[in-house]
Amino acid sequence: MLSKMKHGTALGSRIAEVHNGSSLFTGDAGQGESNIRRWIIENDWLEAIVALPLNMFYNTGIATYIWALTNRKPAHRKGNVQMIDATNWFTPLRKNLGKKNCELSEEDIQKICETFLEFKESEQSKIFPNAAFGYSKVTVERPLRLKGIDAERAYTPKEIKALRESAERLPAEASAQVGDESAPPVIRKIHKKGTMPDPLHGLFAVTVGGKPCVVEYEPDSDLRDTEQVPLLEECGIEAFLRREVLPHAADAWFDPASVKVGYEISFTRYFYKPKPLRTLEEIRADILALENETGGLLGEILGTTGK
Fold first, then answer.
1. What are the sequence ranges of the domains in the chain?
2. Rounded Cα gap, residues 221 and 224, in angstroms
3. Is 2-134 a CATH 3.80.30.20 domain?
4. What is the rounded distance in angstroms from the CA atom of residue 280 to the CA atom of residue 270?
5. Distance between CA atoms of 131 and 81, rounded to whole angstroms?
6. Residue 36 in 3-state DSSP?
7. Distance between CA atoms of 162 and 159, rounded to whole angstroms?
8. Which parts of the chain register pLDDT below 70?
9. Closest to 101 measured CA to CA, from 110, 111, 90, 112
């Protein structure tokens, strides 16, 4: 439908589609579904998404959403997406049709339309910049540590392959001990003099043969992890990793070339209302009531009630 939009006319095109929830979040960064969302949002075609009431359709209870798209956004909507929670705006049916037990009345439809046209923040309406739905998927690497290797030489890919099969590897639970001399990191490259160290990008300053130099370590695939960094993260990916990763893994690094951008939309995150926790007095009263009930049942089983 998007491929058939009219771009050369004054009014352009507006599209409304009904989807299930998978179109909001299915697919990882760089995969087809995520790339479709990225294409739509980065072209600023997404006007709004409306969450419909559950059990709206015959024989299915899945959540459904209306996507409103246009290539002629009004000026006040440009760069933003409106999320409307209309899950509680419905009229019950007098008789269920399969799993369908509600419908949108004229009043409900009018309420959704008014909320859309007003384009204001409220309990049922949230407005976000396009970038709020995007994130960078960052692959975080850790060095391969093997016992009994020479810590002051670089190993070729062939040697590293042989070492992986023969040398004793430092267990994952002990990998945080970056100063463990019995299992030093495997060096795969020693850079020429003049290369500046940059640990966050995998360039570490060490001493080899009594001389300071910059090296790259062989990554350990068993310790490889990923982080999702919001596009709106203040100061970007590096600040996020320094705050969230390096305090727990000081030898971690990432390759900027491996970063992938993804987009996902979570209604739960934006409209979730946590239920207040019960007080300790209420919980204690329930426990005591259960204990009394259990004691009475046990007495009946043993025939000791009233004795």
1. 2-134, 136-261
2. 5
3. no
4. 29
5. 10
6. helix
7. 5
8. 170-182, 296, 298-299, 302-307
9. 90
> Which residue has tokens 């003049």?
194
Whether the CB-CB separation of 188 and 216 falls below 8 Å is answered with: yes
Q: What is the DSSP string of 12-27?
A: --EEEEEEETHHHH-S
d(CA 73, CA 45): 7
Instruction: Name the percent of the chain in helix, strand, coil, to the closest 5.
Output: 30, 30, 40
Output the pTM of the full model: 0.80
Q: How far apart are CA 49 and CA 299, in angstroms?
A: 59
DSSP state of 183: S
CB 72 within 8 A of CB 12: yes
**Token pair of 155 as six digits:** 């190993």
DSSP character string of 247-292: TT-TT-EE-GGG-EEEE---HHHHH--PPPPPPHHHHHHHHHHHHH
Q: Which residue has the tokens 């059990």?
A: 55
Residue 267: the pLDDT is 87
